[in-house]
Write a structure and sequence with these properties.
Pfam families: DUF1684. It comes from Halosimplex carlsbadense 2-9-1. This protein has about 180 residues and is mainly beta. The protein is about 10% helix and about 35% strand. It is globular.
Length: about 180
């Protein structure tokens, strides 16, 4: 089995595990009365072209970014890193955020041309966990196949930050979770 086959198989297993959580777990964002009709999330087919290598720029003095939320509030994040990458022959940049400096994962919310069409109209999220602190010039893999809809896509009881305009990609990212 090739590395790509292994990757696709791991991705499918991860998706099955998430579907099981959403269907059965007490903390699922899907309201209990809707779970009988839930038969799994809708996903784009795994596509290795949406696994990109990105060059890191670290923000030593992180700028605060106020993000609007699905319930009309704003939440404050700090822009801690930027990722420069190529996709479909064009260059793009996404920013990564943290609410607290000791947060382990880097939060990467984004919109693209599928937003509101094939994907949740509030945008999608990715989280990047690194084994060490990132440094300028590091190369990291960003896998859009892991892009997911926030919990507020399933229930109004959740408040979710919307991706700031600086993370709106002017391209189509047909990877990750879809929204019917």
């Amino acid at each position: 089995m090739s590395d790509t086959d292994d990757w696709a198989e791991r991705l499918r297993a991860n998706r099955a595990e998430k579907d099981e959580f959403l269907d059965e777990h007490p903390q699922s964002p899907i309201p209990p009365e809707d779970r009988d009709d839930f038969d799994g999330l809708d996903y784009f087919e795994p596509d290795a072209d949406y696994r990109v290598d990105a060059t890191v720029t670290v923000h030593d003095q992180p700028d605060p970014v106020e993000m609007e939320t699905s319930d009309g509030r704003t939440v404050r994040y700090e822009r801690v890193v930027s990722f420069a990458f190529d996709l479909d022959g064009d260059s793009y940049e996404l920013h990564g955020y943290k609410q607290e400096p000791d947060d382990e994962a880097i939060f990467v919310p984004f919109r693209d041309k599928t937003t509101g069409q094939q994907t949740y109209d509030g945008g999608r999220y990715m989280e990047l966990e690194t084994e060490r602190d990132l440094e300028d010039g590091d190369e990291v893999a960003i896998d859009f196949n892991l892009a997911y809809s926030p919990f507020c896509a399933f229930s109004d009881t959740f408040s979710c930050p919307y991706p700031p305009e600086e993370n709106w990609l002017e391209t189509t990212v047909e990877a990750g979770e879809r929204h019917e």
